[in-house]
Specification:
By secondary structure, the chain is an alpha/beta fold. It has four domains: 139 residues, Rossmann fold, CATH 3.40.50.300; 60 residues, Helicase, Ruva Protein, domain 3 (Orthogonal Bundle); 110 residues; 75 residues. 58% of the residues lie in helices and 7% in strands. Belongs to the activator 1 small subunits family. RfcL subfamily.
């Protein structure tokens, strides 16, 4: 038997060999071809998924298929900000080492960057994306980490799903045949069960048992392997909450999610109307979710004991807002869950929000006040002030706020007139 790790030996070399990721492959092909046509919608993509689903592999396979040079950096290993700046920036602006051959830049495990120890690394990557002349692929095990919020705004987010049990079994059987290992189908099934969709983990289990015992059986797997512990991605979390039949199941889903608490509330809020059919159920779902938001806000003020109530409300509270679960008539309903519209909105409005912040900081500095006061009290009077210091985008934001302020003032005046007329009658 070969001493090379089987997870490396049998790694897909081409996109055609990557299983169970058809939608992801099509999205990546479309994105890369938009680069080749000189009109990329996004300069970077952010591949999100748990370990072992093939994020790095699919990037390498795509570079191979398109005959492109792949420059790979592990962002979590490059602890110094200079590493990102010197290596990645040079690669993103200079020509390829092989003349006309294209290049893909791969920054692996960006969620491994420590926001305190590696302060400035995320802004450096964002600058890199804005200035690059080559397509950039980022990978993350947990893209919903709060420290990656800005990266989510500038990169196209693509989710990779876990390998299903059927394709996992086919993969393991193919390796057994190539390595001439005697594999019991039940043993292969047991590995697929404990690996939880992590292909790398499953292949490593297969190799470790096969090299010692020369065979793989169900009894050996159960005796030697423990089930892989993992956290749930947003879609799995939603499914486990909405489909929970018991309180403990819904609470476990809320507590083991890889999404931070505030963002998970947004995920649930976005998908309650899709999952619940009855409007009374929708009302109850939003009611308990609103209470969860209140408890979370108070917990963040320092009383972290209240976090337990947050889990109870956004887990079992939402799950059992469906009255059919209480009368025994509930049936599971498959729903295509949606990303929170908040995420898309923040991405689309990033430029205007940056301009608003920049303009308000200039006004606040000149008027010796807070930026909030500058926005609420001084912006409506900007017509009479010299506007030479503001950029066109900042002026656009200021004028927009002026119009909004005028509209609100008109509405207030009309409301006062209506109140006065009602009093007369």
């Amino acid at each position: 038997m070969s001493h090379l790790q089987w997870s490396i030996k049998y790694r897909p070399r081409s996109l055609s060999e990557v299983e169970n990721q058809e939608e992801v492959k099509e999205e990546l092909k479309s994105w890369l071809e938009s680069w080749m046509n000189g009109k990329p919608n996004y300069k970077a993509v952010l591949l999100n998924g748990p370990p072992g689903v093939g994020k790095t592999t699919i990037a390498e396979a795509m570079a191979h298929d398109y005959n492109m040079e792949l420059l790979e950096m592990n962002a979590s290993d490059s602890r110094r900000l200079n590493d990102v700046k010197s290596i990645a920036e040079k690669a993103s602006t200079s020509s390829s080492l092989f003349g006309e051959k294209g290049r893909i830049i791969l920054l692996d495990e960006v969620d491994g960057i420590n926001s305190r120890q590696d302060a400035g690394a995320i802004p450096a990557i964002i600058d890199l994306i804005e200035e690059t002349k080559f397509p950039i692929i980022l990978t993350a095990n947990n893209v919903w980490d709060p420290s990656l919020r800005e990266l989510r705004n500038v990169a196209k987010l693509i989710d990779l799903k876990r390998l299903g049990k059927i394709p996992m079994k086919k993969l393991l059987e193919r390796i057994c045949k190539a390595e001439k290992v005697i594999c019991d189908p039940k043993g292969i099934g047991a590995i697929a069960d404990v690996s939880e969709g992590d292909a790398r983990y499953a292949i490593n289990i297969l190799q470790s048992i096969a090299e010692v015992y020369r065979r793989v059986t169900e009894d050996l797997v159960k005796e030697l392997v423990r089930k892989k512990e993992r956290t749930l991605d947003p879609f799995e979390t939603l499914r486990d909450i909405f489909w929970a039949k018991f309180f403990w199941q819904a609470r476990a889903a809320a507590t083991t999610s890889e999404v931070d608490y505030e963002l998970l509330i947004r995920w649930i809020s976005e998908n309650i109307p899709l999952q619940f059919q009855d409007m009374e159920d929708v009302f109850r779902g939003f009611d308990v979710l609103g209470k969860a938001s209140i408890f979370l806000r108070r917990a963040k003020l320092g009383d972290w004991d209240l976090l337990s109530y947050v889990f109870d409300l956004m887990g079992p509270g939402v799950a059992f807002a469906e009255s059919s679960k209480l009368n025994g008539s509930w049936k599971a309903k498959w729903v295509k869950y949606q990303f929170p519209s908040y995420v898309h909105l923040m991405s689309k409005t990033k430029e205007s929000r940056d301009a608003l912040r920049s303009a308000s900081e200039k006004i606040a500095k000149a008027c010796h006040c807070s930026t909030d006061k500058a926005i609420n009290e001084y912006f409506p009077f900007m017509r009479v002030l010299p506007l030479d210091e503001f950029s066109p985008q900042e002026l656009k934001v200021i004028k927009g706020i002026e119009r909004e302020s005028e509209t609100k003032n008109g509405e207030r005046q009309q409301q006062r007139k209506n109140i006065r007329s009602r009093k007369r009658t």
